[in-house]
Specification:
The structure holds 2 protein chains of 2 kinds.
Chain A: H1 2-14, H2 22-31, H3 49-63, H4 68-79, H5 94-132, H6 139-142, H7 144-183, H8 192-197, H9 200-212, H10 216-229, H11 234-246, H12 250-263, H13 268-279, H14 284-299, H15 306-317, H16 322-334, H17 339-364
Chain B: H1 2-15, H2 18-51, E1 59-60, E2 74-79, H3 83-88, E3 96-98, E4 104-107, E5 115-121, H4 126-141, E6 146-152, H5 157-167, E7 173-174, H6 180-185, E8 192-196, E9 202-207, H7 213-229, H8 234-237
Helix pairs in contact in B: 1-2
The chains are: A mainly alpha, B alpha+beta.
Chain lengths: 365, 238
């Protein structure tokens, strides 16, 4: 009987109707998400700006076809697990789901044991009455045979009830776990955020660290992993190009950059790097293309110093236009590069200025 | 104190027994000690509360994002007003690009070698207005290794633009009509600021009005930590 009741309780909690419409799904998600700045209100009820923000984003996600689990994981990743009104189905949160079922089973077991004891006591009282006649006297002391039979009976009953109660508790605990697993939420750590952690962007951070630490092979392996997920991730293509060029593999480096430029022809970083690669190829035609590319990068007036340094280098060593080179280096200095670069640029500028002066003197003489 | 002690001693002597007198004499004594202790604790509490600095409004707050990769904040600019201001103005803005469609967009992934401060604000929020000069100061300090991006939160786009028109600001403001970025960062109430390391990891979060020194304290602590570890993040050494 108790087992049937437990099974019914489990079924009632685990089989719920899926929401019919996406509006209903959004409604249920909002109801099951706690407003992080209010006490005990869901984001559905609250008027706080944070709740309004979460509502509109839940609508966007539901419309985009994200699953409930994904949406809850996203919210938990930004606000913490406390915004989930439904406690998680693992860790300490299991208790929330399992305890009621366990308590119910234990209560059923206790009730069963109690009825058995009442029945036994009634039986023992009946036996004592028929054997002795007087209940008020000490029944156990008066009749040894009745006493032995009662204690034998009691022992058997006690053993039986111990077995039944423990079996019920085991069933209850198992049922509780079942409820917890099917009803509780997955924490972002378990399923979803594992995926998020392996996102192309987070892999890119790894690859950049490996590149900075000169772990070329590892960086390349990470990049290959990224390209399996996202062949067009700009940062990965840029890093891949840098890696290729550091290995002297100019053609592959250019291929990566062309991929970035196909998506955004005005990407200054890609343009600058492409020009920089080309001006150092010993081929006058490619050098000319490289200078044109650097000109395009500089014309976009980027916030970063690299294009100006590259353009200045080309002006100094390829075009022998020292005045232009000094101008480009000065713009680069204005975009304060790291100290080492500042020192290099400043010494290059003073060198070129000296060179120009001697040239000027030569012309005069 | 002393009348109490006299009282108890007369009571004790009145009972006549030495043993009882000893017991009764000790009890008021321990009560006195307890009273003194409680008094001292209360005085200490008052002293601490009275001498503590008043709260300046900004709190280093916890966030599940700290130590994680920053959400890929990007979007169309609502400020500076003209797209050309954003790129071709007096000084180009880091992370801002004009697309082939002529629209200026910010992308947090396009800010290499820079610390990024992400600031959520609202035109109706008084601390945001008070905080504004501190943001300008931080931008000035980090012209070359920092980027500030502001995102309106719980505000109408038009009001957010008016707010910047009134107060100025030489940094990009990214539109957030669906509260996508507010939710991605788990913003609770404006103003709220996040500091992102040059390689894109969220380093700190502040709730409330910040000063320019707040992020800088974190930056110098992290830079010291990295140079001690001798292996800086990719963004600094690249």
């Amino acid at each position: 009987m108790a087992a049937v009741a437990v099974a019914a309780a489990v079924l009632a909690t685990t089989t719920t109707q899926p929401p019919a419409t996406s509006a209903q799904r959004a409604y249920e998600l909002k109801e099951a998400t706690l407003c992080p700045v209010c006490d005990g209100q869901s984001v559905l009820e609250s008027n706080a700006p944070a709740a309004a923000a979460m509502r509109s984003q839940i609508d966007v996600w539901v419309d985009a076809g994200r699953t409930d689990t994904e949406i809850r994981a996203e919210l938990a990743a930004a606000y913490g697990n406390d915004v989930n009104a439904l406690p998680p189905g693992d860790g300490a949160g299991t208790l929330v789901w399992a305890l009621p079922v366990v308590v119910f089973a234990a209560a059923a077991a206790g009730l069963w044991a109690a009825t058995r004891r009442w029945r036994r006591r009634a039986f023992a009282v009946d036996g004592a009455t028929s054997g002795e006649g007087e209940i008020e006297n000490d029944a156990r002391g008066a009749s040894p045979s009745a006493d032995a039979e009662t204690s034998r009976l009691t022992g058997r009953l006690r053993r039986a009830s111990v077995i039944t109660v423990s079996a019920l508790i085991v069933i209850g605990a198992a049922a509780g776990l079942l409820v917890a697993r099917s009803t509780g939420l997955r924490l972002p750590g378990e399923t979803i955020s594992g995926e998020i952690d392996r996102s192309a962007r987070s892999l890119l951070v790894d690859a950049q660290r490996q590149f900075a630490a000169n772990q070329v092979t590892e960086a390349r392996a990470t990049l290959n992993e990224i390209f399996l997920i996202d062949r067009d991730l700009r940062g990965a293509l840029l890093l891949s190009s840098r890696l290729h060029s550091s290995e002297g593999n100019v053609l592959s480096a250019l291929t990566d950059l062309d991929r970035i430029l196909a998506a955004d022809p005005l990407d200054t970083e890609a343009l600058a790097l492409r020009g920089w690669l080309l001006v150092r190829v010993p081929d006058p035609e490619l050098v000319a293309i490289g200078i044109a590319t650097l000109d395009a990068a500089v014309a976009l007036d980027p916030a970063e110093f690299d294009p100006w340094v590259f353009r200045g280098y080309a002006a100094r060593y390829i075009e022998n236009d020292l005045a232009a080179a000094i101008g480009h280096y000065r713009v680069a200095l204005d975009r304060n590069p790291p100290p080492a670069m500042v020192a290099q640029l400043e010494s290059a500028i003073s060198e070129m200025e000296a060179e120009m002066e001697t040239e000027l003197l030569g012309v005069r003489q | 104190m002393s009348p109490d002690a006299d009282d108890s001693s007369t009571q004790a002597s009145g009972s006549g027994s030495d043993a009882v007198s000893g017991g009764a004499g000790r009890r008021p004594n321990s009560a006195r000690v307890a009273a003194v202790l409680v008094g001292l604790a209360a005085a200490a509490l008052i002293a601490v509360l009275a001498t503590r600095d008043a709260d300046d409004g900004s709190i280093r707050a916890a966030s599940p994002l700290i130590g994680e990769l920053v959400p890929q904040l990007r979007g169309e600019l609502i400020w500076p007003r003209a797209a050309t201001d954003a790129v071709g103005g007096v000084r180009p803005l880091p992370g801002v690009k004009i697309g082939a469609d002529g629209v200026a967009r910010f992308d947090i992934d396009a800010t290499p070698r820079r610390w990024v401060l992400v600031n959520f604000f609202a035109s109706w929020c008084v601390p945001c207005e008070r905080e504004h000069p501190a943001l300008a100061e931080w931008v000035e300090r980090h012209r070359n290794d920092g980027a500030l991006v502001a995102v309106p939160f719980g505000d109408r786009t038009a009001d957010a633009v008016t707010f910047y028109e009134r107060l100025g600001g030489g940094w990009p403001v990214v539109d957030d009509p669906d509260a996508r970025w507010a939710v991605a960062f788990g913003v609770l109430r404006p103003p709220e600021s996040f500091l992102v390391t040059p390689d894109g990891i969220v380093a700190a979060r502040w709730q409330g009005q910040i000063t320019a020194d707040d992020p800088d304290a974190v930056i110098s602590a992290l830079v010291a930590q990295w140079s001690a570890a001798d292996a800086g993040p990719a963004g600094l050494t690249r």
